[in-house]
Amino acid sequence: MAAKPRIKDVAEYAGVSPKTVSNVINNFEHVSERTRTAVQEAIEALGYRVNLAGRQLRQGRTGMIALAVPELDVAYFSELAKHVMSAADRHGRTVLLHQTGGARERELSALHGFDAHFTDGIILSPLSLTPRDLATRDARLPVVLLGERQAPGAVDHVGIDNVAAAREATEHLIARGRRTIAIVGGAVRGQQGTDRLRTKGYQAALRAARIPFTPDLVLPVEHYHWQDGARAAAAALDRRPRPDALLCLNDHLALGALRALHEAGLRAPDDMDVVGFDDIEASRFSVPSLTTVAPDKEAIADIAVSLLVDRIDGRGPHDAIDRVAGHRLAVRESTGRGI
Asked: How many whole angstroms separate alpha carbon 25 and alpha carbon 36?
């Protein structure tokens, strides 16, 4: 097996010094375009690969970032993690994956770097952190938050417009003639989390259509799992008047609801429309396939990793950055339209 080319080999091939090769690799400005081109051609010709691990260690970094999410068995987070890992790989970083369970203590541990300096930065999707918690973090550790912004201006943040997304989904149901729309997993009280923002979007759509808001149609759940959606849907079937549509605040709830309808001898959309959130892979293969709000998970991951790497490398503005990723409504069979 041939020996791997070294910086010395690249320098000899390009006719420059090893220091010049290093300057080109590190994008130093004071290198002529002719020299830069010669070095890049030598790197390509010899198949030289930068030793990222060695460079990071020399810079006092590990080359690893952490991704902390509430639950890996909720498919949205596992699919998001896949995209984060791909984005991190493009930046030459390795991802350490942590599950917090949504517990404040574990989220605080993530916020503070897990009490160990083995990562260069954290991407965190919190459920329980407060603005006061965020104020306690060590500003030297780069952090990017996913989900809902808890404290404007505190740390970099990436999310979707949950109010707009829920409003669009509700408007779709109203356009189909639905008027008694229950929101599974919704909330009208408590801290400003995803559930409250999506409920606000739902309420806004009702107001615009002059449909009275009925608090009894807001169906809270203990967790956002399949069985919670099934229980909520089964309870909704016993209501009078019975809802003619369910807006479920994640796809697990919606798929559980579809199961409850099936067990009751009913079917979406003939008896009741069902809409979910997250566009997980299973939503495209359920029977019927699930209409769902599809956040751009790949864009969320790309933006979050880019923001974090910029902070790690000392780039970007002093103030926190707030970025909004796109979303769309994927209309499928559970609201009367094929895949």
From this structure: 9
